[in-house]
Design brief:
Blueprint: H1 16-70, E1 77-79, E2 87-102, H2 104-110, H3 113-133, E3 137-142, E4 145-150, H4 159-178, E5 186-200, E6 208-211, H5 213-223, E7 230-233, H6 234-240, E8 244-254, E9 258-268, H7 283-308, H8 318-334, H9 339-351, H10 363-374, H11 382-393, H12 404-413, H13 422-436, H14 442-455, H15 461-485
Parallel strand pairs: 5-7
Antiparallel strand pairs: 1-2, 2-4, 2-5, 3-4, 5-6, 7-9, 8-9
Helix pairs in contact: 1-10, 3-4, 7-8, 7-9, 8-9, 8-12, 9-11, 10-11, 14-15
């Protein structure tokens, strides 16, 4: 019985390891909880910082793109000598079109007022649709006369071509309607290109108007024209002759201007029209027009780079961008690329350093975002913009070109490596990196350049023929300079 009632006594010290283990486990759990909370807060902080950074960068890109697009019209501001003191703008090159219905007096005699107004309204509504299609500004209608202008309120270099295109389409519409209205509804069109002043007049100031000799000469072209024809001056002819078939028709005396040569625009050049019929523009027409439009964006971007980049941008500046445009054109033509590919190369060269207007580091991303924001304004297609983005991506450090256009672009970007002014340009880049990126001794820079030039290769045959020999000589000179430096 004693045996059955025995209760073993376990020493207290045997419980100590288990107690410590529990304490350690609790402490570990608390540590993990605290670490998790701290880690989450740290992670959330980093995420928020990255989001803020991206949002800030996005806002900067949108603001810069908006500034560039709104800055297209850099016209001088003048004041009208009137009581209203309304600011007006001076434009150097605007194409003015006057269209007037031939024999309107005879039409009035045959139609009652209600039908007359209805017919005029139908025609003018059609005219409005056409000028809107070509982004031309309707100025006003005066009785049976219709007035419009290209190159206002936004300045552009393509306005003369676009106004003539609108005039051709309006004339085709009138010819299609002619059978229904016997011989009454025929149109005279006169066009001239030159400087104007644009602004608003009157107390209400609700409508814009334009003034100047250009307007008067365009009106004279219309009044001295022929029904069914488009009469243009020699100045406009010089701007559009590469797009349209024109027929010389003689001279017109203009007060204080002397005699002005006149031309009839017949149709689009066959090679620039669909099925060579001279009526609808083909893809080649549109691409050549884009090359002219490129001049507009080039002017504003180069101006922005010249005035807004830091003075310490010794290498990545407007001069480098202009040089890049020249080089891609030389290499592109040497490699026989198409006109559209040449346009894409030149536009990518123009845009590839615009990201420096946003930030020095990661400028390629800024350049890409600005290209996406700005280029649609200049009627670049989404496919063209995608091609431009790929070219800019190809300039990132370590990127390898995957097609001929990327090879041309890389060769143009590093064209200076094989030029006689290499050492001058290299010194500029060294100074810029010293200011913005990292410090290094001149000997370290020479060593870095020697290694870079040794490993570098040109991709296109044209670049190899033009630059390889000089580049090899530069490598030898760099090695000699390194020996002296050491």
């Amino acid at each position: 019985m004693l045996f059955c009632s025995f209760v073993p006594v376990i020493p207290v010290f045997l419980f100590i390891p288990s107690f410590v283990t529990i304490i350690l486990a609790v402490l570990l759990v608390l540590f993990l909880i605290v670490s998790s909370l701290y880690g989450k807060r740290y992670f959330d902080k980093k995420v928020n910082e990255e989001v803020d950074k991206r949002v800030d960068n996005y806002i900067k890109v949108r603001e810069k793109a908006l500034q560039i697009k709104e800055g297209l019209d850099n016209s001088a501001i003048v004041k009208l000598k009137s009581d209203s003191k309304v600011a007006s703008k001076k434009y150097d090159s605007v194409t003015v079109m006057f269209a007037d219905i031939q024999g309107f007096t005879k039409i009035v005699e045959h139609l009652n007022p209600e039908r007359l107004i209805d017919e005029l309204d139908k025609f003018f509504v059609q005219f409005d649709m056409v000028v809107e299609k070509y982004k031309i500004e309707k100025i006003k209608t005066i009785g049976d006369a219709y007035m419009a202008a290209g190159g206002v309120p936004i300045k552009n270099s393509t306005n003369s071509v676009e106004v003539v295109m609108a005039a051709l389409e309006i004339q085709r519409h009138m010819q299609q309607q002619k059978a229904d209205h016997r011989d009454f509804w025929e149109l005279r069109v006169g066009i001239h290109t030159g400087p104007v002043i644009s602004g608003k007049v009157g107390r209400s100031k609700t409508g814009s108007d334009i003034w100047g000799d250009t307007v008067n000469i365009a009106s004279r072209m219309e009044s001295s024209g022929v029904a069914g024809q488009i009469n243009i001056t020699s100045i406009t002819h010089q701007l559009v002759k590469d797009f349209f078939v024109c027929e010389y028709r003689g001279k017109m005396p203009i007060k204080y201007k002397g005699e002005i040569d006149m031309y009839f625009v017949k149709n689009i050049l066959p090679e620039l029209s669909e099925m060579e019929l001279g009526e609808e523009p083909n893809e080649l027409f549109r691409i050549r027009l884009q090359h002219i439009r490129f001049n507009d964006i080039e002017e504003i971007i180069i101006s922005r780079l010249s005035t807004e980049l830091s003075q310490q941008m010794y290498y990545h500046n407007a001069e480098h961008t202009s040089d890049m445009i020249t080089q891609v054109e030389i290499l592109g033509r040497g490699e026989n690329v198409s006109e559209e590919d040449l346009l894409i190369l030149k536009t990518a060269a123009l845009m590839h350093d615009t990201g420096f207007l946003i930030s020095y580091k990661g400028h390629e991303t800024g350049s890409i975002n600005l290209a996406k924001e700005i280029l649609p304004t200049y009627q670049y297609t989404s496919e063209q913009i995608d091609g431009i983005v790929r070219l800019i991506e190809a300039t990132r450090l370590g990127a390898k070109p995957s097609c001929k256009l990327e090879q041309i672009f890389r060769d143009a970007d590093l064209d200076y490596l094989g030029r006689s002014d290499y050492f001058t340009i290299s010194d500029r880049l060294y100074k810029e990196l010293h200011e913005f990126d990292r410090e290094m001794t001149h000997a370290e820079w020479l060593n870095k350049q020697s290694d870079f030039l040794t490993k570098h290769q040109y991709y296109t045959l044209v670049a190899k023929e033009m630059r390889q020999l000089n580049k090899d000589q530069h490598v030898e000179k760099l090695k000699a300079l390194l020996l002296n430096a050491n």
